[in-house]
Amino acid sequence: MKLFIALATGSIFISAMPAFADDNYGWFTTPSKNIWCAKRVDFDTSIPLAVECDVDNHDWKNWIQDDDLNGYHGNRFMIPGTGPAEAIGSSDTMVGSAAPVLQYGQKVTFSHRPEDGTITCLSEKIGLTCTNKSGGLMHLNREFYVLNKPVPR
Fold it and tell me: For residue 98, what are the domain limits?
């Protein structure tokens, strides 16, 4: 819980608010601080709803092997509000951003317009799993990632 304090007419009002208010923030990380995610949506440029995540430390080989590129490559994943999740390239990193922690057992759901779909992310000790209602799925952890298939447990 986050505490918000407001001063009004000489009195102090303290209100406990949930740390996650779904569509009201754009960044989060897992308790291990190994997975960092951002909600992406921009109606001005017609970028549809998506969640992108970077996995900082991982056991797999990066899928982009170009020394001329700056940034992180081979560790970013994206799930749109509708459609399949995918591994994507990036020239930046979300790792280390100021972000609230999505605690184990906690989930967050993002939605905007009906045509953009819905994305739900669940933080667990076995990793972060994000899904959409059209069957897209991404499960991320240090050892492996799974896209659009059942997660081995």
Answer: 20-147
